[in-house]
Specification:
The protein is of the alpha/beta class and 374 residues long. The protein contains 16 helices and 10 strands.
Length: 374
């Protein structure tokens, strides 16, 4: 009989792509579930999906990682959802990436730099990465996208995946879409699409890393604005206006920072669709609504702790980072919505200021031409 020799089988096994998910929160756990459903079906991937867990002790005294492995469920961040028996939780970061050549980053953006420092010199030289993280780092030389941070610190190719993706809906397999942004390596992007795509989660790829990533990042700032409108009971017309102005500022800001950003990206799932779903149902909207209902008397930090059960709010920190870029470049007047969201979130303005645009009216008109400014 013909067949594969033992040596040949070993060689083929070595060629399989091994995957690790770095992060185990709500979205990280859903990502692991999606990926695990594909690695068992597709011969190019090793079945096992490792998931790095920032170890926590649960109220019952058990370790989170042990509970995930025993019950195949993240009881804290994604209760009631089985992740797949091939998902293995590991509290040891370096062990979780051992022999892995596909790294999926899905942690709060403020932790990425510290994680990457620990990974330097401890990943395979042929590894590649994808970031599901919304946010940016603002350094003295200017804004740095998370994918660029990962790419430069680890010397890897890094794609991004963003979209209209409320994690709990994907967890119960309601239909959703996402967009992969890649720079040059289309083959790598298609491999990531194969890893993530399911009948209920459709993934497309576009050659615009910065555009895709900035859409995923900036929509959280607009969602804060939408939540403030909800908390003030201002209605759907006002909310629609805020979303439109927000999309306009997202596009102008992105194109001012990166001339390579494509207009068409804003009509992908990562753009207008993600903006809509986040402004209707995301955690940033929910916490901002509570903030507005308190008249700004309860801090975002306090409300995050109360409402999100350990999940992190990204919109407020992103608004601060965006504001730092605007201030450093003298662009505040061009971006009244972004500026106002930050000033409300730090208590300089009351929540009602979100719709007080009269003093900014002429500047809104400037946004049309903002992409020509340098």
């Amino acid at each position: 009989m013909g067949g594969v020799t033992e040596a040949g089988a070993m060689e083929n096994a070595e060629e399989l792509f091994r995957v690790a998910v770095i992060g185990s929160g709500n979205w990280g756990s859903v990502a692991a579930k999606l990926i695990a459903s594909n690695t068992v079906k597709q011969s190019m991937f090793h079945d096992e999906v490792r998931m790095w867990v920032f170890e926590e002790t649960l109220p019952n005294g058990r370790k989170l990682s042990e509970t995930i492995n025993q019950e195949n469920e993240n009881v804290k961040y994604l209760p009631g959802i089985k992740l797949g028996s091939n998902v293995v939780a590991d509290p040891d970061l370096l062990n979780s990436v051992k022999e892995v050549n596909m790294l999926v980053f899905v942690t709060p953006h403020q932790f990425v730099e510290g994680i990457c420092k620990r990974l330097v010199g401890n990943i395979r030289p042929d590894a590649e990465a994808i970031s599901l993280i919304k946010g940016m780092e603002v350094k003295t030389e200017g804004p740095c996208m998370i994918s660029k941070l990962i790419s430069e610190m680890l010397s890897v190719n890094c794609c991004v995946l963003m979209g209209a993706n409320i994690a709990n809906e994907i967890a119960v397999e309601k239909f959703s879409e996402a967009t992969i942004g890649y720079r040059q390596d289309k083959e790598a992007a298609q491999r990531w699409a194969r890893l993530f795509s399911t009948p209920y989660f459709l993934v497309s790829a576009v050659p615009d890393v910065e555009g895709v990533e900035l859409c995923g990042t900036l929509k959280n700032v607009v969602a804060i604005a939408a939540g403030l409108v909800d908390g003030l009971d201002m209605g759907n017309n006002t909310k629609a206006a805020i979303m439109r102005i927000g999309l306009r500022e997202m596009k102008a800001f992105s194109k001012l920072l990166f001339s390579s950003v494509k207009d068409s990206t804003f009509f992908e799932s990562c753009g207008v669709a993600d903006l809509i779903t986040t402004c209707l149902g995301g955690r940033n909207r929910r916490v901002a609504e509570a903030f507005a209902r308190s008249g700004g008397k309860r801090s975002f930090d306090e409300l995050e702790t109360e409402l999100l059960q350990g999940q992190k709010l990204q919109g407020v920190s992103t608004a601060k980072e965006v504001y730092e870029v605007l201030r450093n470049r003298g662009w505040q007047s061009l971006f009244p919505l972004f500026t106002t969201v930050h000033e409300i979130s730090i208590g300089l303005l009351p929540p009602t200021a979100i719709v007080e645009y009269s003093e900014h009216a002429r500047n809104l008109n400037l946004l049309q031409g903002a992409v020509q400014l340098h």
